User: Fold this.
Amino acid sequence: MIERALLARLCRGPASGEELAREAGITRAAVWKRVQALREAGVEIDARPGRGYALARPLELLDARAMAAAMSPEARRQLSRLTVLFDTDSTNAVALREPAPARGCAVWLAERQQAGRGRRGRAWVSPLAAHVYLSVSRRFEGGIAALQGLSLAVGVVACEALRALGFADVGLKWPNDLLARGRKLGGILVEVGGEAAGPVRAVVGLGVNVQMPSAMGRAIEQSWVDLAGLAGGSVSRPMVASALLDALLPALAQFEREGPAPFLARWPRLDCLAGRPVRVACAGEVHEGTALGLSDDGALRLEVGGVERRFHAGEASLRAA
Assistant:
């Protein structure tokens, strides 16, 4: 894959068009076209006389072996396989096309998604080598009902993992968003298939903004934030991805054993909306009130006109009122 080879070379430092052509075994004109394609995919590449091509800011490509080595022994015991794709439609779509492993977790990460998606089919902007796009496929016993609250549990684990890396502002917005400073940082998409009472397969998709290319950021309509902005400088994507997987894989095994209760108990200290006025759109109706946190089954508790109402994940969207 020539684009990946060119990008990997530029990650090591500037290179002339002649040097890139020689290493890739293509013409300089072909190098220019491939560089243009990388730019269109979101990679910021400068070209200067006497210096050649250079990345506008440092990038690291994902390496499956190095990432697995960075995980704890407990997380590696849960790992069936880890695959890094350079370009794909979406990691969730890839995971859904493959059978779930007989044991443990199959993990897919991508440098770029052409059709990244969030909840309710919304598009997820997925520029090349900019963010973390990952999906985990795992079998669960106990039927589909046993997976109630899984997306909430994943949110808690992801939020705690990012806080452990020093991003103290990260919190949760029910049902599936990671927020920081009032703006969207990431999202979770869980897709489930199987029998009502038998084994089921869940694909857990997680996207986290790490370093948004400025041009693509301007095209996003909703308010967003990335880890680089929170840190005030570059952030290692492989480090973030490894930390998320290191926390998530053992947590999925715990969820199968214990259900959502241990995770929901940790939700309140991460909750971005508790005590705040919110608006919930559900089944064509809009309800405004004060968020009261979550119930034991993961429903959003909302005080509306002095009466508590409950909304379950998958039924409502939430915005600050």
Summary: Residues 84 and 268 are 34 Å apart (CA to CA). The chain has a mean pLDDT of 91. Residues 64-264 form a domain with the BirA Bifunctional Protein; domain 2 fold (CATH 3.30.930.10). The first strand starts at residue 45 and ends at 48.
